[in-house]
């Protein structure tokens, strides 16, 4: 279904091919041909994926007919009600689970090969730090597992901790940190190997609004700097809007993609550089419009005009 | 792509963990699946025992009579009939009469009767241990100073060999006479059994009573609930998951304590008594001595198992325990 | 202990004087006389309601008596001498066993033929005070307790049969029989007496007086009722032992009924061997032979165990024994046609069955 | 405004200082009470005991006074020390061997469900065998002339809590951590070293701590039922059999001290192996 | 810094004195008299409250110089960065903690007396249900503790469960419910005794956006129906704006009240009835304006035109 370019295409470029009907109505007409870009494989390519869990109380169809392509360097958020299969989808990409039908490829390889090749970094909804390791040792874990020399490791960890603002806490243990700090350690750990693909499952769930906004800005910056593609699961519409190139809206039971909303955020944003995502954006008109667009996609229909003012 | 499922004005309920309706056939299949799983667990368990039996016999067959001695230290046992009777001899002996006396009962029946006697004594000891243990736990939960003062001694109490004070208990008990209740020797045994039983119960109950989250104790505080209401509505139910394993351990300990105390005080009629009596006959009749040993094990398993049954009754109080 | 009728006898229990007798081990033929007295109604005839209390591993009969838990206790003289030195106030009122029944058994080919051969060997003992005869005998041979390795025996003779112990302690009436009831794996038949060297402590300087009836010294001096009860009690006991001497089979059955777990052959052996320790008793059953007493005291004074503890360090008080009450009992029984010295008694032949069952 | 702020700051500082002091005081008081309370309880009990025996005149025959126990303790100190070494060695060997066996078997049972299921009834049975039953059997099997039987009993007694706790520990690896290791494509050895063992460690240590007291008491009680003499258990029984109760209690005191020593040693081991204990 | 009245002044009355410049510019002039409510004591009156925690690592000044009055029936949200003392303040009102200085009165009594008199209901951030009690029994807990007759109890519980839409789940246990359902049970429990004051500490934190919005609407309705005053702690600006009559914005370390923003939400809302808060509101212009006003109050100054990450 999606036919995202091989490289980071501008939002405008991708808009027609990918958008849902609702979204399309917002889009300006663009030349279809300009979308194709002949470069390396997309970061993630999901084709015809179903996932059925066989539980004690019966089968659960967690995902149905999922098709999704994420370009290298692209930032895609998954949003949808609880239980719609966001985490499941991400776990399929990470090869922590296997699709019941369909295929998942990551950078053109099987998901398993990508995992073995360490092509992605992952951060779970819970921080998932090892309680017996210090902050620094937690961040170093993936490097240790992959046999990175200890001096290199030390430098890298110091750099990462600096980035997430936890240098002073390097020798603390996870239980001595606040939830938000733990999340930041988990993010530093996910970034440790500078992956080309970042998988993040509600990583900011435990943060207060301000820290969250700071982390969002940091994430945008880091992803921009490293050129990593990001698959980002969230419950927060403003967060999805603020961060993403595209927002994938899912519907529950069975989990399907209801719509894919491409973000159109003013002159800066439309240029495709992530630098455009600064704090001021949150108070721009376009931001609220995109929030509303995603909200409507999520609710399944335009919010009725009877209530309140249509802002579109 | 969108709207395969129309969104009602009401929100979709995230009801994970709820048993979802399944068709009868499937439910049936799963039910029998679980039953099959349980059966296979039992099967494996029996397999484990059979493996032990096979190991016993194979070792007896293959190893030298004097065992395996390395550097003067015997690291593997002797295989003589005195040390390791054949399994079938141990089992076969159970069916034979206990002695050649004309009116002798079969060995298994003697063991069963003795085990029942001991079970009763152990149950009494367990109850005393329950009362004392829970009482101590309540006191320690209520006053931190009491916890600090008592808990170290409660832990230390278990390093006192209980046979050291068996005579004291029996002697002091024999002087007690409260109204119609005259102190019986079995009560001394029960009391000693309770000494082993109270320990895990006190520790477990204390942990359990202290287990409610702050959010729950504060909730009770916002209700202006007093000590007893908090105890009854919050602490006691919260203690159940901690108390149950403690009670199970307590039951096993009560049985062990009762058996040892029977030996120690010379109480007649229980399994401890026939344990030493038949051990005394083991030179001439090695298989016979194993009967009461199996009896004692069975007794402990039954005691612990009955308490586990109690856990089934209280299953609603252990909802957040893992099923493992 | 449902032997001897417990206190709940309803109406007639009121007329009977309740008496508690503490044994020093489980019910067995060693105590056949007391069970026979209860079974044959001798205690009741004397107006007593006697409760016979067996003992377990950790109940020390003389302590139960010293604490006032019971009225009389059966115990070995040397053990009680130790307790007396620790402050117990007890009197030996009847020396039922005239001889020591303790043996030290070794294999026939072991070369251990006398106490002097113990040196450097592994010597078995049950502990619980049963080791003093060994130490006393060794002391008489000039050996101290550190020249041997003392191994605590458990309830059976396996440690000896399997060679862990060079010479095992055995009572003539019990453990020695256990040996003869065991199967010799080489022959497939029971062991025979020829298979063993047997040292009897009775033949050594270590011999000590064993089963005696003990009473509370103070009560004996001041409590007339107790004095009367004591005589009645001793009379019934004597009758019981006389019964056991004359009817060993019946006595053995009574003991089995009283809760001994042994089979008939072993029980009968035990009664018969016990009788050998009691009879003949030239001065009358229970009369304390002063020479034997003094020998016991001398042995007790000489014995030192491996932790350096003495059993006793000074002579026991004169109150430690008296023939006054047993003599009275014997006198009162005189003329009832009972053989009180065992002059006509002779042991029977008992064939031990395999397994002791 | 500025002056208000500084006044507030001053007030805060003052209040803070006062509260700070009170907290430090509270802390100190708590530490002192924590140490003092058990000592006071112990002394009160001893006092009452001594009072009953020496003033009220309860017979000190079976229950000697603390003073006479102390006297005997001093008089038999060399023998007590030697006996403690014998029993302590048995307990230590049993604890070490039993714990090691339990750790290995728990690892196997965690890895292979069949082993877990097969060992379940055997372990449950081991947990309920009284020492009285086991001792004569082990003496027959391994010889009554060696300390092996006692060591084996201490080992079996230690085995059960260590096995049960460790097995539980091996099962505690969080799904998120397992996913993480899988995401890192970590090999099974790495998973074991980096995740499974550290997760199980506190559970195993708890098991060992429970086992430490059990090992001592079991090694000691086993001496009641045969074997070489010279340990604390044998001397307690010998002393009691000759009515030397003060001496018996002196040996009992030594056995309590030995149990305490083992307990504290395992606590120290816990600190050593696990310097940081996460609050849960 | 704030100079909140000692008694409940109308929004309009207070507006000039309290409002931030941003807020002031949004406020329309309202007739002062029309809002006055001649009623008993205010629901909560906090005067000169400081709270210092005496921790191992030193003193923490959690609250400083707090003055706040909440009228009967008023809906007030507390918002502020993590650790600014919102929960602490609420705990002082609930008498779960005592102020270091200053006084807290609830309906004219001491906080303690109010607690003993059961003048408030409380819902914590976590649902805090007792796992061994069914849904119905959990709701009945406060009634049981206070010896309400069992028949009355049953009726009341049935009514409450109906209100939160969980009638079918009355006999379920908490672990059989989703996080959102658990939260609703906790809210029903808080309402069980029809308190005149509801204290809610981030009660919707665990919910996904959709469930959260539904619960917000329910809460507005219920509070309106029962006429209860509500003190509501949240991290979400839109949530605070949607729900509240006034939003108290706090600053951290030491926790102070930075501003109190009175909500002005279109013609419906300004009439003071809560019925005006319907879903449509979320897409009204005024709503976004108030969100921006609170955001600015939270950030301490009008969000600068210059881009960059707010790190405060
Ligand atoms: N291991 C599993 N076994 C059985 N069912 C599962 C499993 N994992 C997920 N499910 C089911 O699959 C569906 C999708 O779950 P998933 O965790 O992907 O949802 P989600 O969108 O991430 O929800 P949330 O926002 O609550 O995290 C749910 O109905 C869930 O119950
Ligand atoms: N019991 C306590 N002991 C010591 N310090 C405390 C205690 N409770 C709170 N604090 C401190 O007081 C300050 C305010 O905490 P509070 O929980 O009220 O913040 P909050 O605004 O509710 O934060 P959040 O949004 O994270 O829930 C924090 O710095 C916190 O560390
Ligand atoms: C625990 C214990 N075990 C064995 C014996 C040995 N034993 C059995 S009969 C007998 C003769 C004395 O009556 C002896 C010494 C004991 N006394 N206590
Ligand atoms: Mg998820
Ligand atoms: Mg809070």
Automatic annotation (TrEMBL), chains A, E:
Keyword line: ATP-binding, Nucleotide-binding, Transport
Biased composition regions of type Basic and acidic residues, renumbered to the chain: 1-26
Regions annotated as coiled coil: none
Domain ABC transporter: 44-277
UniProt cross-references to InterPro entries, sorted A to Z: AAA+_ATPase (IPR003593), ABC_transporter-like_ATP-bd (IPR003439), ABC_transporter-like_CS (IPR017871), ABC_transporter_ATP-bind (IPR050166), P-loop_NTPase (IPR027417)
CDD domains: ABC_NrtD_SsuB_transporters (cd03293)
GO MF terms, alphabetically ordered: ATP binding
Region (Disordered): 1-38
Keyword set includes Transmembrane helix: no
Protein name according to UniProt: ABC transporter ATP-binding protein
The organism of origin for this protein: Agromyces larvae
Automatic annotation (TrEMBL), chain B:
Pfam family, one: BPD_transp_1
Chief place where the protein resides: membrane
Location in or out of the cell: Cell membrane
Cross-referenced Gene3D superfamilies: MetI-like
Transmembrane segments: 39-59, 107-138, 150-169, 189-206, 293-314
InterPro entries linked to this entry: MetI-like, MetI-like_sf
Xref: SUPFAM superfamilies: MetI-like
Domain of life: Bacteria
Coiled-coil zones: none
Swiss-Prot/TrEMBL keywords: Cell membrane, Membrane, Transmembrane, Transmembrane helix, Transport
PANTHER family: ABC TRANSPORTER PERMEASE PROTEIN (PTHR30151:SF41), ALKANE SULFONATE ABC TRANSPORTER-RELATED, MEMBRANE SUBUNIT (PTHR30151)
The name this protein goes by in its record: ABC transporter permease subunit
Native source species: Agromyces larvae
Automatic annotation (TrEMBL), chain D:
Transmembrane segments: 32-52, 91-110, 122-142, 148-167, 203-225, 248-269
Compartment(s): Cell membrane
PANTHER family named among the record's database cross-references: ABC TRANSPORTER PERMEASE PROTEIN MJ0413-RELATED, ALKANE SULFONATE ABC TRANSPORTER-RELATED, MEMBRANE SUBUNIT
Protein family according to the UniProt entry: Belongs to the binding-protein-dependent transport system permease family.
Topology of the protein relative to the lipid bilayer: Multi-pass membrane protein
Entry protein name: ABC transporter permease subunit
Major localisation: membrane
Organism, as annotated: Agromyces larvae
């Amino acid at each position: 279904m999606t036919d995202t370019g091989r490289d980071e295409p501008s939002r405008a470029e991708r808009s027609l091919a990918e958008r849902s009907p609702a979204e399309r109505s917002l889009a300006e007409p663009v030349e279809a041909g300009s979308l194709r870009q002949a470069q390396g494989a997309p970061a993630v390519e999901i084709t015809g994926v179903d996932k059925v869990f066989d539980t004690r109380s019966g089968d659960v169809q967690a995902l149905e007919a999922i098709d999704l392509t994420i370009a290298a360097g692209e930032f895609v958020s998954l949003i949808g009600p609880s239980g719609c299969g966001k985490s499941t989808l991400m776990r399929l990409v990470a090869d922590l689970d296997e699709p019941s039908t369909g295929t998942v490829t990551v950078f053109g390889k099987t998901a398993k090969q990508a995992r073995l090749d360490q092509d992605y970094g992952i951060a779970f909804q819970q921080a998932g730090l090892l309680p017996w390791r210090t902050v620094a040792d937690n961040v170093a874990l993936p490097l240790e597992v992959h046999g990175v020399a200890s001096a290199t490791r030390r430098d890298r960890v110091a750099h990462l901790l600096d980035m997430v603002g936890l240098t002073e806490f390097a020798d603390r243990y996870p239980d001595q940190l606040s939830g938000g700090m733990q999340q930041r350690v988990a993010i530093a750990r996910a970034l440790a190997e500078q992956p080309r693909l970042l998988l993040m499952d509600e990583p900011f769930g435990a943060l207060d609004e301000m820290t969250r906004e700071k982390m969002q800005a940091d994430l945008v910056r880091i992803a921009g700097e490293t050129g990593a593609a990001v698959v980002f699961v969230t419950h927060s519409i403003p967060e999805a809007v603020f961060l993403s190139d595209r927002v994938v809206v899912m519907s529950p039971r069975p989990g399907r993609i209801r719509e894919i909303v491409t973000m159109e955020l003013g002159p800066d944003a439309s240029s495709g550089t992530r630098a455009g995502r600064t704090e001021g954006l949150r108070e721009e008109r376009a931001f609220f419009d995109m929030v509303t667009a995603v909200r409507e996609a999520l609710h399944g229909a335009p919010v009725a005009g009877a209530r309140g003012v249509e802002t579109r | 792509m969108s709207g395969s499922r129309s969104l009602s004005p009401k929100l979709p309920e995230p009801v994970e963990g709820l048993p979802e309706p399944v068709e009868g056939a499937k439910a049936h299949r799963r039910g029998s699946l679980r039953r099959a799983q349980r059966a296979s667990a039992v099967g494996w368990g029996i397999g484990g025992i059979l493996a032990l039996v096979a190991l016993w016999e194979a070792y007896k067959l293959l190893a030298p009579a004097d065992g395996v001695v390395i550097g003067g230290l015997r690291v593997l046992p002797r295989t003589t009939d005195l040390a390791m009777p054949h399994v079938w001899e141990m089992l076969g002996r159970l069916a034979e009469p206990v002695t050649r006396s004309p009116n002798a009962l079969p060995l298994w029946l003697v063991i069963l009767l003795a085990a029942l006697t001991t079970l009763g004594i152990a149950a009494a000891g367990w109850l005393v241990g329950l009362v004392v243990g829970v009482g101590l736990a309540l006191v320690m939960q209520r006053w931190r100073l009491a916890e600090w003062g008592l808990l170290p001694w409660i832990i230390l109490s278990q390093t006192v060999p209980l046979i050291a004070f068996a005579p004291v208990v029996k002697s002091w008990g024999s002087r007690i006479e409260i109204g119609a209740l005259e102190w019986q020797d079995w009560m001394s045994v029960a009391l000693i059994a309770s000494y082993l039983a109270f320990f895990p119960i006190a520790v477990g109950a204390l942990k359990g009573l202290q287990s409610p989250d702050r959010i729950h104790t504060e909730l009770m505080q916002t209700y202006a609930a007093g000590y007893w209401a908090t105890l009854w509505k919050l602490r006691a139910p919260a203690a159940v998951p901690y108390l149950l394993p403690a009670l199970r351990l307590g039951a096993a300990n009560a049985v062990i304590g009762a058996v040892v105390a029977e030996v120690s005080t010379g109480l007649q009629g229980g399994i401890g008594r026939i344990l030493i009596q038949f051990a005394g006959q083991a030179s001439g009749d090695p298989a016979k001595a194993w009967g009461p040993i199996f009896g004692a094990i069975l007794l402990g398993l039954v005691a612990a198992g009955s308490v586990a049954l109690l856990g089934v009754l209280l299953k609603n109080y252990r909802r957040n325990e893992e099923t493992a | 202990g449902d032997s001897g009728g417990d206190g709940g006898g309803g109406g007639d229990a009121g007329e009977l004087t309740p008496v508690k007798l503490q044994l020093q081990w489980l019910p067995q033929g060693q105590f056949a006389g007391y069970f026979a007295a209860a079974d044959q109604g001798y205690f009741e005839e004397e107006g007593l309601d006697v409760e016979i209390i067996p003992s377990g591993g950790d109940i020390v009969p003389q302590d139960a008596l010293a604490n006032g838990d019971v009225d009389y206790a059966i115990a070995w003289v040397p053990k009680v001498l130790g307790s007396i030195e620790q402050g117990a106030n007890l009197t030996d009122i009847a020396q039922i066993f005239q001889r020591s029944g303790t043996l030290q058994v070794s294999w026939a080919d072991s070369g251990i033929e006398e106490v002097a051969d113990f040196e450097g060997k592994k010597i078995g003992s049950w502990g619980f005070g049963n080791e003093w005869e060994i130490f006393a005998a060794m002391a008489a041979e000039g050996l101290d307790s550190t020249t041997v390795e003392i191994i605590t025996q458990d309830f059976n003779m396996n440690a000896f049969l399997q060679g862990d112990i060079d010479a095992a302690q055995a009572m003539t009436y019990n453990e020695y029989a256990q040996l003869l009831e065991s199967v010799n794996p080489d022959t497939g038949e029971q062991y025979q007496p020829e298979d063993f060297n047997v040292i009897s402590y009775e033949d050594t300087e270590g011999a000590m007086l064993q089963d005696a009836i003990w009473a509370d010294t103070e009560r004996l001096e001041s409590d007339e009722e107790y004095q009367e009860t004591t005589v009645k009690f001793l009379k019934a006991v004597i009758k019981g032992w006389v019964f056991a001497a004359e009817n060993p089979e019946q006595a053995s059955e009574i003991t089995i009924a009283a809760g001994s777990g042994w089979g008939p052959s072993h029980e009968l052996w035990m009664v018969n061997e016990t009788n050998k320790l009691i009879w003949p008793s030239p001065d009358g059953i229970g009369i304390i032979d002063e020479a034997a007493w003094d020998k016991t005291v001398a042995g007790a004074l000489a014995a030192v165990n491996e932790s350096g503890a003495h059993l006793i360090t000074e002579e026991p008080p004169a109150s430690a024994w008296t023939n006054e009450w047993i003599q009275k009992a014997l006198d009162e029984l005189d003329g009832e046609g009972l053989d009180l010295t065992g002059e006509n008694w002779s042991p029977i032949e008992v064939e031990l069955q395999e397994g002791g069952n | 405004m500025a002056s208000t702020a500084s006044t507030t700051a001053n007030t805060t500082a003052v209040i803070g200082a006062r509260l700070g002091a009170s907290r430090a005081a509270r802390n100190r008081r708590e530490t002192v009470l924590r140490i003092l309370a058990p000592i006071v309880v112990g002394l009160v009990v001893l006092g009452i005991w001594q009072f009953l025996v020496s003033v009220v005149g309860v017979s000190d025959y079976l229950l000697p006074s603390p003073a006479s126990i102390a006297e005997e303790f001093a008089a038999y100190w060399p023998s007590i020390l030697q006996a403690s070494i014998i029993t302590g060695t048995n307990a230590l060997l049993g604890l070490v061997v039993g714990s090691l066996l339990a750790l290995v078997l728990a690892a196997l049972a965690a890895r292979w469900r069949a082993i877990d299921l097969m060992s379940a009834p055997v372990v449950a049975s081991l947990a309920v065998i009284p020492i009285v039953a086991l001792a004569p059997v082990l003496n027959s099997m391994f010889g009554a002339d060696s300390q092996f039987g006692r060591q084996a009993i201490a080992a079996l007694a230690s085995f059960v809590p260590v096995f049960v706790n460790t097995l539980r520990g091996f099962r505690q690896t969080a799904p998120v951590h397992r996913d993480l290791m899988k995401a890192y494509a970590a090999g099974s050895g790495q998973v074991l070293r980096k995740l499974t063992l550290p997760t199980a460690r506190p559970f195993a240590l708890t098991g060992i701590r429970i086992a430490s007291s059990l090992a001592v008491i079991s090694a000691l009680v086993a001496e009641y039922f045969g074997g070489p003499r010279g340990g604390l258990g044998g001397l307690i029984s010998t002393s009691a059999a000759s009515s030397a109760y003060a001496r018996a209690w002196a040996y009992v005191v030594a056995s309590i001290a030995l149990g305490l020593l083992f307990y504290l040693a395992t606590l120290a081991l816990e600190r050593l192996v696990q310097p940081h204990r996460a609050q849960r």
